[in-house]
Write a structure and sequence with these properties.
kinase; protein serine/threonine kinase activity; transferase; Anti-sigma-factor_SerPK
Length: 158
C-alpha cells in the first residue's frame, strides 16, 4: 500500500447534523492529491475510493454503487487533468441515502457534453455523468480560482 504522503492528505470523517432532520448524520471524506495534474492521479483516486467508500456507506448500499462511483470519479478526474489543469480536491459526502462526489480543479469553464463518435477516445464523460447520476452540477468559489463538479448517487438498494 502506498504511503499517504505520496498520494495526498486525508481528512477524517466529519460528523454533523442536518438542519432539516437533526437525526440524520452527514459524513464526509476528503482527499487532496499531491500530483493532481498528472494522469496517474486517476488510478490513485480509484485506490482512495476503494478504501474510503465502504467506510463511508457501510454494507447496506446498493450493489452497483462502488462501480458507478468509481467510473464517474475516473471520468471527472480525467476531465480535470486533461482540460482543467489538474485536480485539487476530491470529496465524498453521505447524507442519508445520498452520496455526493465532488471533484475540484483549477479551471473555471463549465464541462459540457460532447457528441463522441465511435472512433473518439474522449467525449463521453459528461454523458456518463448525466446517465448515472441522480443530479450533477458545478460550483464556483468567489475567493479562489477553479470550480468543483459534483454529482449525486443514491446508495439505497432498489
Amino acid at each position: 500500500m502506498a504511503d499517504d504522503s505520496a498520494i495526498g492528505s486525508h481528512t477524517p470523517t466529519v460528523h454533523a447534523r442536518r438542519r432539516d432532520n437533526p437525526q440524520q448524520r452527514i459524513r464526509q471524506l476528503m482527499w487532496r492529491p499531491v500530483d493532481g495534474g498528472r494522469v496517474a492521479v486517476v488510478g490513485r483516486a480509484r485506490n482512495w475510493l476503494s478504501r474510503s467508500l465502504p467506510r463511508l456507506v457501510g454494507l447496506n448500499a446498493r450493489i452497483q454503487l462502488g462501480e458507478d462511483t468509481e467510473l464517474l470519479l475516473s471520468e471527472l478526474i480525467t476531465n480535470a487533468v486533461l482540460y482543467a489543469g489538474g485536480v485539487t480536491t476530491v470529496r465524498l459526502r453521505l447524507a442519508g441515502t445520498v452520496l455526493r462526489l465532488t471533484v475540484c480543479d483549477h479551471a473555471t469553464a463549465t464541462p459540457t457534453a460532447r457528441a463522441a463518435t465511435t472512433d473518439d477516445e474522449h467525449g463521453r464523460g459528461i454523458a456518463l455523468v448525466t446517465a448515472l447520476a441522480a443530479r450533477w452540477g458545478v460550483e464556483r468559489s468567489r475567493t479562489i480560482a477553479g470550480k468543483c463538479v459534483w454529482l449525486e448517487l443514491s446508495t439505497a438498494a432498489a
